[in-house]
Each structure stands twice: as structure tokens, then as C-alpha cells.
Design brief:
There is one protein chain. The chain contains eleven helices and ten strands. By secondary structure, the chain is an alpha/beta fold. It has one domain: Alpha-Beta Barrel (TIM Barrel), CATH 3.20.20.70. The structure holds 3-hydroxy-3-methylglutaryl-coenzyme A and magnesium ion (MG).
């Protein structure tokens, strides 16, 4: 069976960059709709500093109010032990830690060096595992950094291997600013695949330059079978200038299905969720 899993990140990576503070009820409605689409994992929360990312301040409420579908895991970002504590209290099913392959982005996003962030994340990973939760790892700026320029593939491999050594069951490789080309993605993946098997990797390609699908294709060729996407193409990263727009889930699902890959997702429900995402943006224009 040619299965590909789409990991939905819209309610987190999609919404975190929206300037209007979106009411909790709208966020919950989006997640509840997505819960009917057939995903196995949805990232819905981020327990970061509300001063850094005000939009995610309602993460606890969102996790408490959503209607949970059986067997679906609701994930949350945790940047430090305090974030983990809040994620556990709110009932997250899995936790994500998020490091960078470039120093410039690490400082902009986490206010510390890569090394210091990994020391902090190691504590988060230990705590999550002690509580019985799976931990997913992200590596940002895997091909390009808005501050440091091109990222050496070896730097990505090193950070990914360190996250795996902390016990991350999967490492999602992020083209944070969507400037990667298939050539760059291939070179980066070849370096990472020297140290980690394809089954432990996911692709997280922002679509800023409209090349995300080409990058998915390059990653599929090298054996990756999990890709992150945000319904309605919501998104961006507040600390990466130019990171507007995740790859739209419904576009990725349609693209994959047309090429004979099976996603298990319901296109009609995805269209409904994309409609809700569009309304959220419309609400923003109306403010
Ligand atoms: P800091 O300012 O260096 O740390 O922030 P601090 O420990 O000095 O804390 C500053 C203030 O934040 C304090 O409050 C803390 O209590 C509070 P004050 O004393 O000033 O009133 N604080 C917290 N509050 C709530 N929850 C917490 C928490 N921690 C501290 N967990 C910190 C360090 C890591 C906290 C900050 O830099 C931060 O929150 N960064 C997160 C930035 C972020 O969320 N970025 C977007 C997600 S990453 C992404 O989108 C990329 C990805 O999609 C993959 C890709 O595309 O590449 C994953
Ligand atoms: Mg992202």
C-alpha cells in the first residue's frame, strides 16, 4: 500500500502568525472539524511565552474544549519545562520540541544558542517520556535561514541525530521560510539519511515560494512518508521573516491522491475545514 500520512499543523503553525487574536470558539470549531477528516495526529497547541506568541496563549483552553476523536493524538509544542507542565495539565497527547539547524534562527526563535536549546529540550523530552507521552522533534531552517543564509546539510544531520538521541520518535525537517528547492532538499536529506532512517523523518515545507509540492516530491523519492501541512495554507512563523503560508493540507492531499498515494483523508471534510480557515482570515480583514 502506498500510504502517506499528513500531520495537520494548521491550528498551531497555521494560526500562530495570524495578527487578529482569534476567539477560542473559532479555534475549537476548526480542530473539531479537522478531527473528522481522518488524521492520526493534529498539532493544536503551543505552550510558549504569551509575550512571544500571543495567539497561542489560549492553548490550554483549546485543548480542554475540543471534542477528542478516539485514536487521534493532539500535539502541543513545549519550549521548556514550564511549557511541558502546562501541556501535561491541559491533556496534550504528545509533545513537540523544536530546535534550529542555524544559530541565527535559534536566537531569534528561542533567544538562545542551538546548544543551549538542546540542553533545555533534553529536559522537556525526559519529562514528557516520564509522563508517558511521545515526543516529536522539529529542526528548523534545514535548507535556508533568514539570518544566516544557506544551512550546511551536516548541521541538520547533527541536530536531527541529537533530537533522536533524546528519544524523539520522529524528526520533522522544516523549510521554515519556504525558500528551499528540490536540489537543496535532496542534498539535505541525503546528509540526514546517513544518520537516521527515512521512517523516522517528516517533511515540513512552507510554501512561500510555491515550491513545497516539488520539495515533497523530492522527499518522497528518498523514502519520506510523513508530511506536515496546514489546512487552508494558513500560517507562518513569527520569528522567520518571509515564512508566510504552510503547504495547504487539502492541496497536498489532492496532489498525493492524484499520484496514487493514499492519505486516508476525507476531501469533503478538508474543504469544510479550509472554509473555516478562510473565514478566520476574513475575520482578520474585517477587524
Ligand atoms: P526568554 O525570554 O528567553 O525566556 O524566552 P525567559 O525564561 O526569560 O522567559 C521570559 C518570560 O516568558 C517570563 O515572563 C517567563 O515567565 C515567560 P516574565 O517574567 O517576563 O513575565 N515564559 C513562559 N510563559 C508561558 N509559557 C512558557 C514560558 N516560558 C517562559 N513556556 C522562550 C524563551 C523559549 C520561552 C521564548 O523564546 C519563546 O516562547 N519562544 C517560542 C517562539 C515560538 O513559539 N516560535 C514559533 C514556533 S517554532 C516554528 O513555528 C517552527 C516550526 O513550525 C518548524 C519550521 O517551520 O521550521 C516548528
Ligand atoms: Mg513551521
Amino acid at each position: 500500500m502506498r500510504d502517506v500520512e499528513i500531520f495537520e499543523v494548521g491550528p498551531r503553525d497555521g494560526l500562530q502568525n495570524e495578527p487578529r487574536l482569534i476567539p477560542v470558539a473559532e479555534k475549537v470549531a476548526l480542530v473539531d472539524c479537522l478531527s473528522r477528516a481522518g488524521f492520526r495526529r493534529i498539532e493544536v497547541a503551543s505552550f510558549v511565552s504569551p509575550k512571544w506568541v500571543p495567539q497561542m496563549a489560549s492553548s490550554g483552553e483549546v485543548l480542554r474544549l475540543i471534542r477528542r476523536a478516539p485514536g487521534l493524538r493532539y500535539a502541543a509544542l513545549a519550549p521548556n519545562s514550564r511549557g511541558l507542565e502546562d501541556a501535561l495539565k491541559a491533556g496534550a497527547d504528545e509533545v513537540a520540541i523544536f530546535a534550529s539547524a542555524s544559530e541565527g534562527f535559534s536566537r531569534a526563535n528561542l533567544n538562545c544558542s542551538i546548544e543551549d536549546s538542546l540542553a533545555r529540550f533534553s529536559e522537556v523530552a525526559k519529562g514528557a517520556q516520564a509522563a508517558g507521552l511521545p515526543v516529536r522533534g522539529y529542526v528548523s531552517c534545514v535548507v535556508e535561514c533568514p539570518f544566516d543564509g544557506p544551512t550546511p546539510p551536516q548541521a541538520v544531520a547533527q541536530v536531527a541525530a541529537k533530537l533522536q538521541a533524546m528519544g524523539c520518535y520522529e524528526i520533522s525537517l522544516g523549510d521554515t521560510i519556504g525558500r528551499a528547492t528540490p536540489v537543496g532538499v535532496t542534498a539535505m536529506l541525503q546528509a540526514v539519511l546517513e544518520v537516521l532512517p527515512a521512517q523516522t523523518l517528516a517533511g515540513h515545507f512552507h510554501d512561500t515560494a510555491g515550491r513545497a509540492l516539488e520539495n515533497v516530491e523530492a522527499a518522497l523519492v528518498l523514502g519520506l512518508r510523513v508530511f506536515d501541512a496546514a489546512v487552508g495554507g494558513l500560517g507562518g512563523c513569527p520569528y522567520a521573516p518571509g515564512a508566510a503560508g504552510n503547504l495547504a493540507t487539502e492541496a497536498l492531499a489532492a496532489w498525493l491522491e492524484a499520484r496514487g498515494w493514499h492519505t486516508g483523508l476525507d476531501a469533503a471534510v478538508l474543504a469544510q475545514a479550509a472554509g473555516l480557515a478562510r473565514q478566520m482570515r476574513q475575520g482578520e480583514r474585517d477587524v
